[in-house]
Amino acid sequence: MSPVEQIPAAGSEPMAAAPARPSRATLVNAALGLGLLAFGLGAWAMGEVFMVTLATKVAILAIAGAGLNLVLGYGGLVSFGHAAYFGLGGYTAGILAHHALNYTPLFEWPFLFEGTTSMPVIWLTAMVIGALAAAAIGALSLRTTGVYFIMITLAFGQMIFYFAISWPAYGGEDGLPIYVRNGFPGLDTLDPLHFFGLVWAVLMAVLGGIAMLARSRFGLALQAARQNRQRLMAVGIRPGGVLLTAFVISGAITALAGALYADLNRFVSPSMLSWHLSGELLVFLILGGTGRLFAPLAGAGLYIALEHLLGGVSDHWQFFFGLLLLAVVLFARGGVIGFLAGGKRHG
Amino acid sequence: MSALLEVEELTAAYGQVQALFGVSLKLEEGEALALMGRNGMGKTTTIACITRMLGARSGRIAFAGHDLGRLPSHKAARLGLGLVPEGRRAFRGLTVRENLMAAARKGEWTFDKVAELFPRLAERADQKAETLSGGEQQMLVIGRALMTNPRLLILDEATEGLAPVVRQEIWAAIRALKARGQSILIVDKSLKELATVADRCTVLERGRDVWHGTPAKLTPDLAHRFLGV
Lengths: 347, 229
Fold this sequence. Notes:
heterodimer; A: mainly alpha; ABC transporter involved in vitamin B12 uptake, BtuC; two-stranded antiparallel sheet; 14 helices; 2 strands; about 0% strand; globular; B: alpha/beta; Rossmann fold; 6-stranded mixed β-sheet
């Protein structure tokens, strides 16, 4: 069996869960993570710069999906408004860079701040803003459950979307260009390979962090909250607190992805905030297998690959994509990873 | 000294349907109290009120010097109420170890101690709860309650619907817990087994406490009258 050679590699993966022998899920995860890296490097070696960018896009969308997976897959909360955090992250990157590149101060009080083009600063700011937005939206949305939760998260998402459209200072409906990709110490971020490597590393760090979180007492309580909130109360844990914390972390992760996406396209537009994007993130998880650590990567990868391949064949590629989604929902409820790795995920 | 748990004149209702019409009971530290009565007499409702899963309409519940009053149930649990609810209520999608670790609070009960009490759980530590047998799931739920290091363990029909062998195992564990001084409030159908654990009994009838006494004083005559056995 060929996967045997990958065992040492799998050990260095964040998902090396099983103490004795890596499980099939670990091998599938390793194959996905390393597969994306190999694809990016291979495309570069063959001079296919566009493919490197495509791989970068997959990695960024996977980060956004990983944020959603924390609340949906582990916490069982169907958020239909995660584009809000993605877009807020994007606008954070766009606005900070816009001021820095135009030499116009973002604010002068309490200190002069002229924006920044430093990725670490932008990421941190985006995550804080995403977390704050998620805290406010989550605090209100988590009072509801089921379909009401889906609708209220969608409503908040749309609120922010229309706000962005009607606010002319940062481009309104036309969006906001970032003329030069923001910088990262020691890297040439305009080099597609450098940027791809950076994004891939961020993706692995995020997935590693989520793997650790899922196994912590907090993560266990989060999964328990998905299964039965009352039982969780019976052991002295308030489900609302656990779910809100997860929601805030989720918002921060998705905002980070948004900041990276803005830099990938060197452009921010309200479409990053649209409900289509919220829906796409959900589709990634359904395709990949909700609650599986690498589901967002599998789902985003498949989605982008099909968009690229089918999109070349027919303008109506989403019709065929719909058929695939239907097949997954009907015949492979565990998604791609559930299909490959086996094992039941949802109780 | 005040009792660990003191319930006075508790009344409760499910919507329009009143279930408790004034239940009083008392449980001292280290004591095991059996809550008895036929089906539908208010045993589970009383427990739901004590654990604050159900709001009482009137009456007073004091636990470890705190008035449980309007406390949310997770806070009541944190004060030291460890509930083993009716039916097998493990977190099905989590493994045995994860079920226990999710509930863990500081104290003498640890995963190893629970594994010592229920060796079967140690064998199945990395198995999902949903793959366990009914008896093992029940042991897991008892273990999960113990992991919160409760001052009062509440067992609601912990042995119902289990095979006799498994039942014996669980009763042995309950007796061991009692022997080490664990305070227990227990509801069960088996009078014979209850008599080996309970220091005192409180019998409920139509949502009222109608009899208090030691298991020895619960004569066959009384048992027939109150419990129909």
